[in-house]
Amino acid sequence: MRLIATFTRTAVLGFGLLAVVPPAQAKSYDGSAQFYAHERAIFTEARKALGNGSFNRFRELQSQLGEYPIAHYLEYERLRRQIRTSPNAQELKSIFRFENQTGDKALAAKLRSALEGALAKEEKWSQYLSVVRDKRNDDCDTLLANIKVKGLKRFDDDSRALWAKPVSHSGHCKAAFAVLEKQDGVSVRLLWQRLRALMARGRTGDVNNLLGWLNARDRSAMAFWVRSYSKPEAHLPKSDVLAADNAVNRRVLLSLVQRWSKRNADTANRYWQQMRDHYSFNSEQRFETDALIARMAAFDRLDEAQDWLNALPDARLNNELREWRVRAAVFNQDWPGVIKAVLAMPADERAEDQWRYWLARAYEQQGQSSKARALYGPLSEEMSYHGFLAADRLGADYHLNFPAPASDAQTLAALAAEPALIRAREYALANLGWEGRREWSSVVEPLDNRGKLAAAELAYEWGWADRAVYTANRGGHSANGRLRFPLPFAALVKAEASRQAIDPAWIYGVMRRESAFIEDIRSGAGAVGLMQLMPSTARAVAKKEGRSNVDLTRAQDNIPLGSAYLRSVLNTFEHQALATAAYNAGPSRVKRWLDEDRSLPADVWVDAIPYTETRRYVRAVMAYTTIFEWQLNQRSKLTRLSQRMPEIRPDLLLSRRDGS
Asked: Do both 124 and 146 map to the same domain?
C-alpha cells in the first residue's frame, strides 16, 4: 500500500491549501470538463474586465465565483497589477494576507518577486532592501541597492562573479560597477576572466570596451582576436600580430583555429599543421585542437574524417569522440571500421540501442549472421527507432506495448478528488496552462512511481494529454505506449492530414516530439505551440494558406499551419525522413547534408546527420509516426519503418539541388 500512503500525505497537504477558499469537492466534482463551465466563463470574463481596467465589473464577476477552485487567481492578478502600477513595500502585507487566506505559496512567491522587481525598476532602494529576502550582491538590483543605501564601495566574491559574467553590463549593473570600479578597481585576474568568458560567447563588442584596460602588447593581440573572430581564415594567414610565442598569443591562435575548423575543417587543418609546432602548446591544447578538427571534418563529411578520428590516441577519447568514430565509419559504410569502433567503446556505452544496432548491422554486412541475429533479437523487442529497424532486419513483428490501466478505481478516485489536481485541470481549461502544470507537479512530483502511474492514467482519462505523457515519463513508465502516445485533437489532425494529403500519424509524430502536446509551449528560440512553429515561418505559411489573426498557442491555428509546412518540406524532398530533418533544421541545411554522388541507405543517412539535435529528432519522429499509425488504424495496419525510409538516391536529390 505504499502508493496510497504516499498519496494520503499529499492529499492532506492539498486540502490544507484551501483553508479559506471553499474546497473543490464540496460540489461533488464529477471529473467532466463541463463541470465548472459556467464558473469558468465568469472567471474568463472577470480576467478580461481586470485587463481592461473595468474594476467594478471585475469585482462584480469575482463575487459570483463562490467555490470555483481557481477563483483566488483573480485576486493574485489584481494584486500583481496593483504592484506593477504603484509598487510600495507595504504591499508585502497584502501578499502575506493572500498567502494565509489561500495557502498558495507559489503564487505568493510570484507576487513577492513582482514587488521586488517593481521597486527596483522605480529605484526605491530602501523599500527594495526591506522586501528582498536574499541581500547577497549576486544580482544587479541588490548590488546597486547596497551601494545606494549602505554605501558599499568594495567588490566581494558575489559582485566579482557578477562582473565577470559574459553579458553586457547595462542598467543597474552598469551603474553599480561604475562605482566599484572607481572605488576598488578591477584585478588583472578578474579582467582576464571576463575577457575569456566574453570571447567564448563571441561577445566581441563587450571585449572592445575593455581593450583600453590592457597593456599595449595584450591589447594588440586581443584587438586582432576581435577583428578576426567572424572570419579567421581571412586574417590568420596574412598577419604576424601573433608571431611571438606567449600565453596570450597562443590562446588567441588556438581559439581562432578552432573557430576556423567549424567553418572549414579542411583549410583549418592545413593551417594548423603548419603552425602547431611553431608554438609551445601543451599536449592538452594540441589534442583539443586535433580532436575538434577531426570531429568537424566528420561533421563536414570529409573523406579524411575517419582517418583523422582514428589517429587520435584512444586513451584520451571521450564519449563524443568515440561516437563520432562510429558515425564516420557508418557514413562510409566501412563495416570492419564500425565493428572495431563499437567494440572499443566502454561496455555501458556500447549497450545503448544505437550502437547495438550498428554493431549488428556491421556483422550482417560482413556475413556474420549469427552474431547479427544475437544482437538484433533483444533489440527488436524494444519500442524504439532502432528496435523497429532491428525487427525489420529480422522480419519480426514490432513490440508495441499498450497495457491496460494498472491503477485501481479507489486510487484513481482519490487522486481525482485531490483539490490541487482539480485546480490544475481548471487552470488548463481556463487557458492558464503554465499554472496548471505548476499545480499538477506540486502534487505529482512527491509520489512514488506507482503513484505517478496512477496520476498519468488520471490525466489520460481527463483528456489532458501533455500531463499523461509527462507524468508517465517522470514515473519511469516510458514503455507504456498508451500513456505516452495519446491521440488529442484527433478530428483536427485527420482533417488537416486529408487537406494536405499527408500521413496523420506523421503530424502526430512531429507534434509529440516538438511539444509533447503542450498547447501553449514556447521554446527559448521563439518557436510556439504544438508543432513549434517559428513566428516568421508561421506568417509565411499563413499567407500562403490565406489565414489571418492566427494564435499559435491554439491547436485550431497551430496544427493547420504546422501541417501545411510539413507538406511544403515534403514537396521539396519527397522523402519523409529528409522532410522531417528539414522541419527541424531547415531545408538549406538538409540540402548541404545530401550526397549527390552516391546512394545511401536511409538508416545510414539518418544516423550520420551532423546535428545531434536533428539526428535524435528524426529518429524520434519516425518511430513515433510508426506508433501513431498503429493506433490510428486500430492496430490493423502498420507501415514498416524501413518502408517509410527508402534508399536516398542521387536521382531524387539532383532535381532538388537548386531548391526547386
From this structure: no
> Looking at the structure, do residues 39 and 89 belong to the same domain, yes or no?
yes
Rg, the chain, Cα only: 30
Residue 226 backbone phi and psi in degrees, to 5? -65, -45
∠ CA 404-25-521, nearest 5°, is 60
What whole-number distance in Å separates Cα of residue 83 and Cα of residue 70?
A: 21
| Burial bucket for residue 33 (CB in 10 Å: 0-12, 13-18, 19+) | middle
Please tell me the predicted confidence (pLDDT) of residue 659. 44
At 173, list the grid cell.
549593473
Both 176 and 48 in one domain: the answer is no
Q: How many residues does the chain have?
A: 660
Residue 6 has pLDDT above 90, yes or no: no
| 568 shares its domain with 525 | yes
Interatomic CA distance for residues 36 and 618, integer angstroms: 41
Residue ranges making up the domain that contains 61: 2-131
Note the pTM of the prediction, 2 decimals: 0.92
Q: Is residue 616 part of a domain?
A: yes
Nearest to 563 by CA among 618, 489, 631: 489
Which residues lie below 8 Å from residue 67, measured CB to CB, with a gap of 6+? 21, 22, 23, 24, 26, 27
C-alpha cell at 338: 564500425
Whether 70 and 43 have beta carbons less than 8 Å apart is answered as yes
Instruction: Assess whether 502 and 558 both reside in one domain.
Output: yes
Furthest CA-CA distance within the chain: 81
Same domain, 501 and 541: yes
User: From CA 595, how far away is CA 251, in angstroms rounded?
Assistant: 36
Using N-to-C axis directions, what is the helix angle for 216-228 and 247-263, rounded to 10°?
Answer: 0
Burial class (CB in 10 A: 0-12, 13-18, 19+), 266: middle
- Per the structure, the count of domains in the chain is 3
Q: Both 500 and 570 in a single domain?
A: yes
- C-alpha torsion sign, points 49, 54, 55, 59: negative
d(CA 361, CA 355): 10
Q: Grid cell 547595462 — which residue?
A: 170
Whether residue 446 is contained in a domain is answered as no
List all residues 6 or more positions away from 641 whose beta carbon is below 8 Å from its beta carbon. 385, 388, 389, 392, 622, 623, 626
Residue 228 covered by a domain: no
Alpha carbon distance 604, 467 (integer Å): 35
Spatial distance between the Cα atoms of 540 and 535, rounded to a whole number of angstroms: 9
Does 396 fall in a domain? no
Q: What is the tens place of the pLDDT at every residue in 52-79? A: 999 999 999 999 999 999 999 999 999 9
